[in-house]
Every structure is written in C-alpha cells, then in structure tokens.
Batch of 2 targets.
Target 1
Amino acid sequence: MTAPTLVKSAPVVSTPPARAGMGPGRWIRDHLVVLVGMIALLYMFAPILVVIVFSFNKPEGKYNLVWNKFSFDAWRHPCGASGLCESLVTSLWIGVVATLGAVIIGTLAAFAIGRHRFRGQATSNVLVFLPMATPEVVAGSSLLTLFLNLGIPLGYTTIVIAHIMFCLSFVIVTVKARLAGMDPRLEQAAMDLYANRAQTFWRITFPLVLPGIVSAAMLSFSLSFDDFIITNFNSGSRVTFPMYVWGVAQRGVPVQVNVIGTAMMLIALVFVIGGRVIGARRNRLK
Amino acid sequence: MSIAMAAGLSETGPGGVGPTPAPGGERRKLTPYFLLLPAALAMIVFFLLPLLTLASTSLMTGSLESGYRLTWHFPTYGDVITQYWPQFIRSFVFAGLSTLLCIAIAYPLAYTIAFKAGRWRSILLVLVIAPFFTSFLIRTLAWKQILSDNGAVVDFMRSTHLMNITDLLGLTQGRLLATPFAVIMGLTYNFLPFMVLPLYASLEKIDRTLFNAAGDLYANSWTTFWKVTWPLSLPGVVGGTLMTFIPAAGDYVNAQLLGSTGDTMTGNVINNQVRNFAYPASAAMSIVLMVAIVVLVIFYVRRSGTEDLV
Amino acid sequence: MAETTSTGGSLAIRNLVKSYGSFTAVDDIDLDVPEGSFFALLGPSGCGKTTTLRMVAGLEEPTGGQIMIGAVDVSRLRPYQRPVNTVFQNYALFPHMTIFDNVAFGLRRRGAQNVRTKVMEMLELVELSHLAGRKPTQLSGGQQQRIAVVRALVNRPKVLLLDEPLGALDLKLRRQLQLELKRIQADVGITFIHVTHDQEEAMTMADTIAVMNKGKVEQLGSPVDLYENPRSPFVAGFLGQTNLLTARVSGQSNDVLTTDFHGVVLSMPTSRMAAKGPAVEVGVRPEKIHLADLGQAPVGYNVIDGTIIDASFIGVSTQYLVRTELDAEEELTVFSQNSAISLRQVGEKVSAYWHPDHTFGLHEGAWQEAEAAEVAS
C-alpha cells in the first residue's frame, strides 16, 4: 500500500466522530424499528384499552358496545351479572387443582428427563412436545371421545384432567430448561462440602429450580384459567369463566365481564411486577 | 407468565446436562422411571389413548341413538375432505397469513426490546405479556367492538380509501367485521406473544460484538441484519412459527366471533360436528387436520434446517 | 466425619484407572503426595488430570485402583464422606446464598461449633470479611475465587483439591493469586493438589509436579528437576522449549556418556540419559547455550559450529536460530542474555557451546513428540 492511496481512502475507512458516523440513513432505520415496535405494542394494547374503558360504561341496552355514560356501577357490583361469579369460582378452583396436578407430575418428569440417564429418554423428550404440537380442537375432541367411550360423566373431573394434560408439557419444558441451565458443579460442590444426597437436593437443587417451578405454576394457572376450546368439549354442564363469556357473547356481554377482565390484568401485573421488584431487591442486597 | 413457556421452548436445545451422580447402587437406576411414572401414565391414558380412540372413532358408523360401531369405514375420510376442503384450505391460509403477519409485527418489537430498550427492557417485556392476562375471549370480543361498522377503524379506512384496496383483495366487504380480514387480524393478535417471546429469547442471546464485526467487515446495517441477525434469530423464528401456526390452524373462536359463515375454519366444523354428535366425521376431520399440520411442520423444520431445535 | 486436623494428610494413589467405554481417561497411575506439600497435576487438556482429581474428590467413580488418604482407603466413599474439599473451576459458589452461608455450608453440614467465628476468621484470612452479606454475583472474579478457596479450607480438609482454580482470571490477577494461594498453603499447612494446564503456574506454585499425558504420569519431580532433566520428550517439550539433535552413542567412561553428532563429540552425565540404544537424541535448553566467534569456544564444553539464520530481539534476551554446519536439517534455538555490547548478525558464523552437565538424552525420534507437546502447552 502506497502513501497516496492510504491518504485517499482514509476518509472512507476511518471512523469519523462517534454517533454522527452512523449516518442519517442508519439513524432513521434504527428509529424506524423502534417506531414499528411501538406500533406493535399499541396493537397489543388496543383491545385492552377498550375493555378497561368500557368497564366504566353504563350501557343503554344490554349490549355494552357504545359509550353511554361513565359509571362505577359494575365495579361496585362485580357479581351483579347472574352466573358470572359462580363461573369465576369454578375457574379458579379448576386452575388451582390443575396447576397443582400438572406441576407435581411435570416436575417429577422434568427431573427424570433432565437429571438422569435412562433408556427411552430420547423418546420421552419427543413425547413431551407432542401435546404442544396438537391443535386444541384435536386434543379436546379426542379426550371427549375417550370419556364418552369409557362412560366417564363430563364435569369438574374431566375438565381438571384435560387441563392437567395441556399444562403438563409446558411444566416439563419450563422446569427442564431451568435444570439444564443449572451448573452441575453446584451440586458436586455441596456433596464435596459434606451435604448428603437429601441435603444437597433440599438446600441446593430445589431452591435453584424453584423459580422454574414457580413460573411453570403461574403459566399453568393462566393457561387453565384462560382455556376455552378444550374445556368446551369436556365440561358437560359445568361453566367456567371463559365458557360464561362465550355464552353471553351472543346475547350481550354484561359490563361486569370487562370489570373482571381489567381486574385480572391488574392482579397479574401486581404479581409480575412484585416478583421482579423482590428479585431485584434481593440482588441488590448488601 | 407465558414468558417462561416461550423462552423455555427456545432454550431447550441440545446441551443436555451432564450430571455426575456419585457412585450409587441399582436402586438409583430405577429412580428416573419412578419419577416419570405419573407423567407417563397420564400421557398414555389421557393423550395417546384418546388419539387412538379418535382414530378408531373415525372408522365407526352408526348414530347417536343406535350407537357407534367400528366398521372400518374409510369413506368417512373421503367424505369430509370433499365436503370441507374449503375449510381446510382456509385454516391453513388464514393460519399461514397470520403467522407471517406475526413475524412482521413481532420482529421489530422483539428487536426493539432486545437491542434498543436499554433499561426499559424489563418494563417492555411486562407490557408485552400484560394484555394476555385478560381472558382471550374478552379481548377478541373487544376487537369485535373496535372493528364494528360504525367504529373509528372502519371510518378511517373508508375515508382513506384503504377499504377499496382491501375490498379488491377480497379481504373486506365494505366493512371489516365478518370478513377474512377480521379473522386473520384476530388470529394474528391472539398468537402474537407466542412469536414475540421466542424471537426475543433468541435475539437477546446474540453477541453484540458480531454487529461490530460485521460493520468492521464492510457490511452496512441492512446487510448486517440479513447476514448476521436474521440467521442467528432463526431458532426463535422457527419456534415462534410453530407456536403460532399450530394453534391458529386449529382455532375456531376467531372465525366464530369475528368472521362470517363464509369464513369458517376446520375447527368450526369439528366443533359443530361434535355438538351434533357426528363423532366419526369430527374424528376424521381431527385426524386429517393433525396429519396435515404434522406434515407441514416436518417439511418446514427440515427446510429451515433447525431439526435440532425440537 | 469428625473435624480433622491436618494429620494424616498424605495422598497415595495406586493403579488408578478410569475408562469411559473404550476410552481410557486415566491409565493405571500411581502417585504419592506427602503430607503438607503443594502438589501440581500438570498436562494438556484431556490428559486425565481433572478426572484424577475428581476421583480423589469422589465425584467420579474409579474403574479400578485405590485412593488412600493417610491410612484410609477412600476409593469407594461418597464425596461427603471424604476428608477432602474442592475448589471448583468457575468456583461453583451457591448463587442463592450469601458469602457467609456459602462458607458456612460445609461446617453446618457437619454440625460444627462456633460456625460464625470460624467463617469470619477465614474471611479475614483473605480480607473479604466485609463482603459476608453479599451474594456471589456481586463479587468480582478474584473475590469469588478467594471465597471458593476459603469455603473449602474452612472445613480443614486433609487434602485440598484445586481444579484449574485460576483459569477464569486475567493474567495479572492470576499472578497475584498464585502467590496468595502459596501463602495460604504455607499458613494452613494442608496438602494442596492443584490441577492446571499452565506450566508456568505449576512451576511457580508447586513443590512437586506430576506431568500427565494421555492418562499416564510422564514424570514426577520438583519444578527444577523436571525442567533441567526431562526424562521424556513430552516433558521436555511441555515445560519450556528444547533443542534435540539426533546422535549416536559412541562410548561411556565412568559417569560420562559420549555421543557422536556427525563426527562431533557431545557428552553428558550418564544419569541424564533416559534412553537406551545407539540411536538417541541429545537435548539442551536454549538458554543454556552460549555463542562464541567461530572456533573460539572454551575447552571442556559441547561445541557445535553453525550460521545464524534468524535473530529476534525480545528485550531481556535475543533469540537466535543457528543452523549447524554439519547437518543443514538441524537447527539450534539459543536464548542469549543481552549483556553483550553488540548483537550478532544474521549470516554470522558462530560456535555454539554448552556445559555437558546441561545436556540430557532422549530416545530416537523424540523431537516429534517434544514438538507436539510444545504446541499443546
């Protein structure tokens, strides 16, 4: 390389002062991405805003579709619509029981697959994904045919079984991921420091996997609470909250449904943000 | 909540754990089987057995009154396919389009959160999942309200003549509600976080110095994106596609609430058949749907070269 | 296991074997580590050193052989039943516990008294007692490393195992911690067994080094011994650079062995010849060779004439490459202290000479193995 070429190419090759060097084109493109991202976020929030706003509406007729008058009525009487709170309680109970079942069975299985070596491990790994890859109509209708063939009456039990089944895979995958992210040397270190197997499990393994189990439980609960398609096939005469909403959708949704929807989101937000704050505070502890 | 699910999905690559259990006896070798037993039993009885029942039901004939008997009646399959092929086609076209839309919408969002958000990152992540704490039926009903004939969106599209274009494409019919547009939009909306979270998880893992390296090697930001960012985010794209496409193809709620009778999908048909106790037909439909999805997924995963992902 | 004092802290390994299917990671090794010594297992990655350490810790089950600590055979004991503690690679500090709880972990498992005093004493030792309430992630790499050492030491093990404990740290910090570990070892007097692939680290810290290669112990000795008198081409190449010349044994008188290199006599003490047979390789370390003007080498030395074909100035020394006159295939690397007034030039003809006592002998073809070892080091 001769001196003249070096000088000539210098303005192109060298990096001119920090940010300006990115050029206006890059600047626009960078911010275009952010702009599109924010529009996407708006898209995600649009229906939520409608739900929240209309929870304060006092509709003229039975259809809560047009804004009429601001009112706290529905918030004051959240159980004012008949059948709503019964369905809510049903959903909460089913959510709790199904979550417990799925988390217990799933965590055991995750430990088996993630922590042991055995024949059939590869098969188990694939089988775990199958329910997730099954469309809900298929899962729901196939369970229904089973229950019908076995003569099991539809109701509370069949809903819980169905919910455990679609939560199970998610629990196994979530807990297994947490296990996989754990340094095996931590358990070895505990053993090296005179902890026997039980102590190693309860003092090291379990506390470290717990966040995975907790998020699996939260996930299971929200999946169970929100499920409509599979439940609709296997519920018999039981009415869960989503089924209640589906039922009233045709004849006019009461304002209370918006109230419950808004409250659910607020409660979940409190949980998530609270969890994060606690986590952050724990990390910052001196 | 669903963060864990989506992130967990994409994180489950190879890289298995290498636990080194201390010297142990025979009893230890049985432990995994004991641990696995409840889940395995549940899977066999309540997942695999139902699928088998479904398969056998699809070959039955009879009626609700006289009972159904296994007669190996294969023509049911031919019947449901010839009768409901438009619904099958619609399921896959709607699901495919909404998956593409999901990628288009989710990618900038995930990219923003992963690389541009700075200290806003965790707040944005919470915001992404926050809407999904509200029942999806309530949200879908809210869309019905937003897209209604005298709503702001319709007014806007009419006044800007956007509606003329979408009408021409057959997506809308002078209105938004009860059109394919509304169904596809609803599907896109409902499954969006299942695209955002895996995408975010795989984008977040990318080593930023790679961007600098690409820039250093004369790639502009566009080239850097297509040659570095996009290929490295493929596991997230594939994971998100599966999590979006599969449930979308089987969905019937969006078609029911946002579409017209001309926009029904496979799920609607299956649901109606079950309501009318036409069990063999619904079973045959379910099997066809599932086989079609599995074939498509295998083809897709092969093509994208990410077999080790699942 | 009761609290142990540092008595009976010798380690003896007999016929230790570990195989994974058809692959033998540790191939029938014997080791004796005297109590209170700082012992290093040195070798390239995959040589079996970590596997050996993990078998001593009880984290890996031997395929065969015995591990004795003091007079007790611990080979079949669980990790938590052995009087050894380990400093893990990347430290393996429990992320969900404070520093204090990490250090107290082992004491509490064994139901020790005065846990608080003991933990704080140990934290004092590494001057980190002010961090007792922190979580591991809030500590720097060097601090985490110290905590890992203290967490193991507080249990007063008979043997402390260190698995590449400094591998994750930068060079400067590593030098500092090498000295600190040595000081701690001298303070507590516990037997340290240190696994490393870094020959400089092993030589700085250990009083005895076992050089391992392909599952076997190549040579065992003090750093000086290993460096000055390598008994295998691997050791010669892995610890520093070496020159090897192909020669034939020409005679032996008293304690002196003479060899013939294209008519030139190169002699060495008989004890420093590790090979038998007429065809051998004669070795000498580059810094042992001096350069003189052609024909000016002093009497009583091994002398080889040659031409300088390359010279690299490195500050404290200059590295010359000398091609021998007698065999154009053979080259000598020479490290010359820059104490001379002028440096030698490329193309200059010189006499390279060194003392017979600095000469060692290896078997024929050793240069290839030595070169491979040098690349691996």
Target 2
Amino acid sequence: MAVQPAAPTAIPGAFSGTALRADFPVFERLTGTGRRLVFLDAAASALKPKVVIDAISDTYSHHYANVHRGIYELSEDATGRFEAARRKVAAFLGAPSEREIVFVRNATEAINLVAYSWGRANVGKGDRIITTQLEHHANIVPWQQLAAETGATLEYVAITDDGRLDMDDLAAKLEGRPKLLAVAQVSNALGTINPIAEIVEMAHRAGALVLVDAAQSAPHMPIDIKALGCDFLAISGHKMLGPSGIGALWGRRELLDAMPPFMTGGSMIIRVTLDGAEWNEVPAKFEAGTPAIAEAIGLGAAIDYLTALGMDNVREHERFLFEAAWKALGEIPGVRRFGPDDPEIHAGVISFVLDEAHPHDVATIFDHEGVAVRAGHHCAQPVMLRYDIPATTRASFYVYNDLDDVEALVGAVRATQKLFGPVAS
Amino acid sequence: MDNLYRDFILEHYRSPHNKGVLDPHDLHFADSNPTCGDEMSMTLRLDEPKAHITDVAFDGRGCAISQASASILTDELRGKSLDEVRAMDPKQVLDDLGVPIGPARLKCALLSYKVLQGAVSGGEVSWPAEAEAVV
C-alpha cells in the first residue's frame, strides 16, 4: 500500500497560524468535549494575544492614573502612554495627523458620533444620505435616525447576486448631490471587499462626503487613509486583537473642527461658566469624561503585534485560508456559499447555508465539534432579506487560524449533514 | 450532541405537526427570536363562547429546536381553555422537548411559547425568565 503524504496543516507564508496560537492564552483551554478550540469567529470579535492582556494588566499595575489631569508623575506617565496609543492608531491607518484620531468605544459609537454631530449640523429636510444594502446595522440605523429627525431621505445601494456593490446603482444614487455616502470597506456578513478608493472618487465627484466603516477591514488588511481619500473612517479595537470598549474615529481635521460636540462634560471643554462653555480642540472636544485608558493602551499593543506581523502578510495569510475553505466548501453538495468567488475581493469571511439544517442548528453541532462559528443575521438583516434567507452560518479567519481549522470546518459540515441528512454525496 | 438532536426532535423538524395557517381563525400572533431573526406565527380557532381552543397551527422558518418545540407544543393545545394556556409554565415546554437545551438555545426552544402567549393575551409578551440564560 502506497503511503499517502500527510496533508499539510499549515500554510506557507511569513508566519504560521499554528505557531502564533502560542501567543494566545485562550488556546490553552480545551472545549467542553475535550477538543482543541477551533475559533472561526474573528469577524464577531478577535481573540487576544498575551501582549495585549499584559499591556492592560501592566497599565493598571504600574502606570495608572487619570489622563490629561494630574500634575504628577503617574498621571503624566499614563497620559504619555495613552497619547502614544493614539499615535499608533494614526500610523496604522495612515492618518495625516494623530489629532484627527478620536477615541470612542467602538465603530458603532464612531458612526453615531458623525451622524449626531456632523449630521445634525449639516443635513436637513430634503437632503439625501446614501448607504448600502451590504452594511452592518451600525452603518444603517444611525442614518435612519438622522433621516427621521431631519426629514432627509436615506437610500441604499443595491448588491449583486454574488454580494458585490452594484456600481451602476451607486453611480445613479450619487446623482443629485447627496450629502454623505456611508459604506463598509469589508462586509461583515459576506466578506466582500469594496473598492473604496474608486467609490470615494465617484462620491467626491458627486459632491458627497464619504464615511468608511473599517471595523471589518482594518484588522485584516493594510489601510491607508491618504490613499483611500475618504472623509471619516471608523474602527473597533476588539476586532483587531485589542480590548473591547475602545475604538476610533478618524475624521478630516477641518470637518472635526467645524463639528459641534457629540457628548459633553469634562475634558472636552476649555472653560465653563454658569452661562455656557467653550469647547476644547479636537480630538479632546469629542472625548468627554474619563476615557478607556488601559483599553486604548491595549489597542496600541495590538497594533504593535499586527504591525510586527505585517498587515500585507496578515491579508495574504487570510487570503490563503479563504481560498482553501471556499474551495473545500464548494465541493460539498448541499452547501450554498455567499459573496464573491474572486479572492481579491473576498476577505477571510465565509457565509454559507446548508440545505438540510438551519444555521442555528449548524452552529450548535459545530460547537460540539469544537468549532466556534457565528450563526444568525450578523447584524446585517438587509443582506439576509436580499437573499431571502433568515440567517447564515459564518466562518471567519484571523492570524491564529491555519489549514487544520479549515479541515475542522469541513469536518463539522460533514458531521452536520450526517445528522441532518439526507444529502446525496 | 446526539442528546440534543434525538431522532424525535429531527422527526418533528422534518415533518412538523400543525404547520400552516388556519383561515379563518379567531386569534393570530407573530413574533421573532432576536438572536437569529427567525419568525413564527400562530393561528388559533376557538369554540363558542371563545373559551377553548379547537384548532391551532404555527408557521415560519426556524431551527430544529424552535420547530420541534412548536410542533410538540401545538399538539397539546386542542381542548385547553385560554385561562389554562395563560397559566402554562414555560418549564413544561422545556420538559416536553425532553432534551437538554443549552443557554444559547433557550430562546429557540421558547419562541413557540412566547408566540402562543402573545396570541392568547392580545399582544406581545416579554420573554419568560426561563429564556434568559444564567450560566
């Protein structure tokens, strides 16, 4: 009998996903059924490397005081580390200046900040806001609220059968000088990578500002705000190996300068009298109250970790995993995959449904197999409506995933089909 | 796993009892599971003077747990008075499923109960405490 060479379990590239697992303490934990953890839910939230956990612990242990306040060494130390984190975010995103980086809780808060502050000051009755059918609810509902309060209209760019933005529909919707286009760089539900630079150029020609929801792209590919040309960009720390409770809004300085505050209180003022207050400069104007200090520093550590890996390498790693998983799932009868075929425009997120089993049941059976995936509408119900499905199962990859995880994914699909059958294969 | 997806659960999923829409009907209510977006509706017919259930049907797409739960629950309802239905214990619905339901799936198992209570109460009711996972 010929000896079959063992299938490779690690992908070639600048780093090994399997080896990186040693950096993530959660992999020391086995699942309830005694298996190794196969974590395929980075799109919901990423696991944390020890360097991030240590940065938070070290902040509270040795460097903690309130920032921008105390005239004492410890506060100056904390402030220095907090502001260094802001510089790291600016450099990571290719922002022209760290003063354009506003720390917020997450991308949702960043988008709400723009909708409330810029929106209420610049959008009125009869104005138009454009978003897309591909968006996360965080990039839909704030604009629905803005439209409802101001009498503006909100329009949605359609998506194609394979989950791309319909560029003809985008061009049509951009006519008539809409005020703003709000669009994701990567769809969290389908994995589609949108051509942001091209979209921004079209929108600017049409006279619209562009907000980019980069919550799903910044963790997984190089971002260069200067090259994208957009006006606002939102990220969430927890999706990029950082802690929850910290995210950032980048905005053009002149736009941020002209915008009224979002939340008011301490830190964001220069002077308060009984008659009123004067606003501090950006970004302080938008950072009312004590910020998430250790979380910001933790995000800085996550950025250091990702930068050391190299964001081009991260993207390459995930492209390889996507291609392997997309192909393997495509070969199984009864599996329907969503999103574009082309790996150039499909990030490491695969949404799929099985003919015989509901996504919720799929996720439960996967869980039993030690495979953590998301099932549901992924906070993108308009996408589900577009394809007339209630939900999908979604597997999403990150730096700690490898070919053994793709193998586990395929095995879990087969286990589900075995239980729920009958699917001819 | 074989504990949760026992054959009779899968049987109810593949061939649910009382599936469809009763037309005409006396009571109708639809509700959804916020975690997955699954929607379920229920239609009921009552006797005169509208005190007892004579027929019931449920409709909607959903997972094996929610469909089996609705199939089993609706089987129990014919002949019951509306007061009896309102007094039903959600724990009974979980017991009738006869399989261990993990915290993440409690709402799947109790969606049919919530839709039924909405139908007999004339409007949406809160999730029962049993649906809130306490791990």
